[in-house]
């Protein structure tokens, strides 16, 4: 029944959806988005070794746009009201444009461990923003889960061994914090716009804006010699574009149209956990005892926050 309701939401006037307080499908969508995001690290690593990061990001956006274009006729914009551009414009600028731009540059100056610690602040920023802007409640259990998951991500990130020294940690960490702020603002804006717009329409706006914003990557791809289109590289690019850029963002936006933004943002803390787990299972990377405890803390924190959000 809920799957049918989700499908009918694309044909509903304005493309909007009815906001629900919970259910198993939004949680399943969030877990799927987290798994896709967690698996994107290995694919991204392989891709940037063969071409410029700007080219990789443009290809991701272009593939996602090509996949969603055949369904453009079902993504109605009848719900548009005068002044909505003041929300839609910043939404697409903050993510994917500014977010990917800041994060890609941040990792040139700081270590992945320090960047991972800063990324754990997204749920805190979203929870506070949703409380201030969307009037979503902040219960004690929710706050406890938030801080526990942040601590888990911090320990998980710090216990890792970065492969290269940080060239300018202060600058890199400031850029990473800016990227996380962009992600938090985007989540709140998507939550507000999902009241009247289809989450898949908002996702289409994002990938279209990203394709235009990262268009210099097409020029770099054209000028860059020696790009070997191997099967693993093609698979990685298609995976990043169709499943991660479109699938993960679409599933996450749809889930946010059904549950509070602060609750949905908690699942972001599972991304580094899934990345470590996939690296351990697929790439043979070791998982220390400290990292296992930290991963468990993140999962427990998400569970506490979920229970606290339902009670609120």
Automatic annotation (TrEMBL):
<feature type="transmembrane region" description="Helical">
    <location>
        <begin position="85"/>
        <end position="102"/>
    </location>
</feature>
<dbReference type="GO" id="GO:0005886">
    <property type="term" value="C:plasma membrane"/>
</dbReference>
<keyword id="KW-1133">Transmembrane helix</keyword>
<dbReference type="Pfam" id="PF00892">
    <property type="entry name" value="EamA"/>
</dbReference>
<keyword id="KW-1003">Cell membrane</keyword>
<keyword id="KW-0472">Membrane</keyword>
<feature type="transmembrane region" description="Helical">
    <location>
        <begin position="170"/>
        <end position="188"/>
    </location>
</feature>
<feature type="transmembrane region" description="Helical">
    <location>
        <begin position="114"/>
        <end position="135"/>
    </location>
</feature>
<dbReference type="InterPro" id="IPR037185">
    <property type="entry name" value="EmrE-like"/>
</dbReference>
<feature type="transmembrane region" description="Helical">
    <location>
        <begin position="55"/>
        <end position="73"/>
    </location>
</feature>
<feature type="transmembrane region" description="Helical">
    <location>
        <begin position="264"/>
        <end position="282"/>
    </location>
</feature>
<dbReference type="InterPro" id="IPR050638">
    <property type="entry name" value="AA-Vitamin_Transporters"/>
</dbReference>
<feature type="transmembrane region" description="Helical">
    <location>
        <begin position="228"/>
        <end position="252"/>
    </location>
</feature>
<keyword id="KW-0812">Transmembrane</keyword>
<feature type="transmembrane region" description="Helical">
    <location>
        <begin position="21"/>
        <end position="43"/>
    </location>
</feature>
<feature type="transmembrane region" description="Helical">
    <location>
        <begin position="200"/>
        <end position="222"/>
    </location>
</feature>
<feature type="domain" description="EamA">
    <location>
        <begin position="28"/>
        <end position="157"/>
    </location>
</feature>
<protein>
    <recommendedName>
        <fullName>EamA domain-containing protein</fullName>
    </recommendedName>
</protein>
<feature type="domain" description="EamA">
    <location>
        <begin position="171"/>
        <end position="303"/>
    </location>
</feature>
<dbReference type="InterPro" id="IPR000620">
    <property type="entry name" value="EamA_dom"/>
</dbReference>
<feature type="transmembrane region" description="Helical">
    <location>
        <begin position="288"/>
        <end position="305"/>
    </location>
</feature>
<feature type="transmembrane region" description="Helical">
    <location>
        <begin position="142"/>
        <end position="158"/>
    </location>
</feature>
């Amino acid at each position: 029944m809920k799957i049918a309701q989700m499908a009918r939401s694309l044909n509903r006037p304005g493309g909007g959806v009815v906001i629900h307080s919970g259910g198993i499908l939004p949680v399943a969508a969030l877990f799927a988005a987290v798994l896709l995001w967690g698996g994107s690290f290995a694919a991204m690593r392989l891709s940037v070794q063969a071409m410029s990061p700007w080219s990789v990001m443009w290809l991701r956006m272009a593939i996602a746009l090509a996949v969603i274009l055949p369904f453009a006729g079902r993504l109605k914009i009848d719900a548009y009201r005068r002044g909505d551009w003041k929300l839609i414009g910043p939404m697409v600028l903050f993510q994917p444009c500014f977010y990917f731009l800041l994060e890609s540059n941040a990792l040139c100056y700081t270590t992945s461990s320090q960047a991972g610690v800063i990324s754990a602040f997204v749920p805190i920023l979203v929870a506070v923003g949703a409380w201030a802007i969307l009037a979503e409640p902040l219960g004690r259990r929710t706050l406890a889960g938030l801080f526990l998951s942040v601590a888990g991500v911090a320990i998980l990130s710090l216990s890792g061994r970065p492969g290269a020294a940080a060239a300018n940690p202060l600058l890199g960490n400031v850029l990473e914090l800016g990227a996380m702020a962009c992600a938090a603002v985007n989540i709140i804006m998507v939550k507000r716009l999902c009241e009247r717009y289809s989450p898949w329409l908002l996702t289409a706006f994002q990938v279209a804006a990203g394709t235009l914003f990262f268009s210099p990557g097409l020029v770099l791809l054209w000028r860059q010699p020696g790009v070997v289109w191997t099967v693993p590289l093609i698979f990685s690019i298609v995976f990043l574009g169709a499943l991660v850029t479109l699938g993960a963002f679409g599933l996450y936006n749809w889930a946010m149209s059904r549950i509070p933004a602060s609750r949905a943002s908690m699942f972001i803390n599972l991304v580094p956990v899934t990345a470590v787990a996939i690296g351990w299972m697929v790439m043979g990377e070791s998982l220390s005892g400290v990292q296992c405890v930290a991963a468990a803390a993140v999962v427990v924190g998400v569970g506490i926050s979920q229970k606290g959000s339902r009670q609120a």
